[in-house]
Amino acid sequence: MTATSDVSSHAIARARWRPAEIAFWILALSCAFLFPSRYLIMTDILRLALFTLSLDLILGYAGIVSLGHAAFFGVGAYSAGLLALHGIINEPVIALVVAGLVAMVLGFLTSFLVIRGVDLTRLMVTLGIALLLEALAERFSNITGGTDGLQGIEMQPILGLFAFDMFGKTGFFYSLIVLFLLFLLARRIVNSPFGLSLRAIKNNPLRASAIGVPVNRRLIAIYTIAAFYAGIAGALFTQTTALASLDVFAFERSADLMLVLVIGGTGYLYGGLIGAVVFKMLQELFQTITPQYWLFWIGLVLVVMVLVGRERIHRWVLWGPNLVIRQVFGRKAVVAVPESDAP
Questions:
Q1: Half-sphere exposure (CA, 13 Å, Cβ side) for 10?
Q2: Distant-in-sequence, close-in-space partners of 262: CB < 8 Å, separation ≥ 6
Q3: Other beta carbons within 10 Å of 80
Q4: What is d(CA 161, CA 340) in angstroms, rounded to the nearest whole number?
Q5: Do residues 117 and 216 touch, judged by C-beta distance below 8 A?
Q6: pTM across the whole model
Q7: Mind listing the pLDDT tens digit for each residue in 125-147?
Q8: Mind naming one GO cellular-component term on file for this protein (predicted)?
Q9: CA–CA gap between residue 78 and residue 145 (Å, rounded)
Q10: CB 143 within 8 A of CB 88
Q11: Which one of 83, 191, 200, 292 is most buried, by most CB atoms within 10 A?
């Protein structure tokens, strides 16, 4: 009984909102007013953050490595595009959910292949699924538009009230709301007994199985949920850009997720969000300075992070704010280095 109460108390403590989390989302909302001319790049960051969040659910919490996560992103993107192009579902929110469910079904069907192997096998299987879907999309160009993509996509106003504008303002708020709602769901999932069982599976699947955790069913469930999240991210891409092409299945899109998680960290939900912001800012900066060699500088930053350590860099970044807190409030700084599973 004591062990049960301790686990319950620990789960409640983990699920409690921290001031830093509230400040993070207030800052995200305030960006709409601080940078009114940057809606398009900020919307791109939000889409990438949601896409990365979907990978973190399986990599950071269940230990499933994937190099083909773009398969679900692409299915969601094309589903939303085809629904809008042919007038099947004109309301963007409903189409968004339907596109996510289509990707979810694909995730469920392919999860049985993924759970049969370990890291290297999973890498090859997930990559193969993405490459297969890209080849099929190119083969059936009469449906997907082939290399030209879907042409003539026109998105209806959201809920019949908010029309998409050329400056990306509506798309930004739409993407931010979707990201926040799905983040709340993901936060609830990882802080539930289901989420605790995923951590046990990641740490030691044999021990988790020995204590009665249904390992395969848990992995299938989280993989299916992650596919739903990736499909929603793909649908957001199509709805906010009115574009869907073979690029949505590209290997580079899956590889970028790995880079984002290297920057932000795995095993805590804010890692993907923070990593997406940093990655896009670095990408834009280096593309401005050296358009042809920006990947080299991104790679150099990643090498430095690996050699120096993310925690040490975090302490260096927070040295100034901590010093201000000590000087102004006369007490020890409350800002600390995040743990692997908490922001």
A1: 11
A2: 275, 302, 305, 306
A3: 30
A4: 41
A5: no
A6: 0.86
A7: 888 889 999 889 888 888 888 87
A8: plasma membrane
A9: 10
A10: no
A11: 83
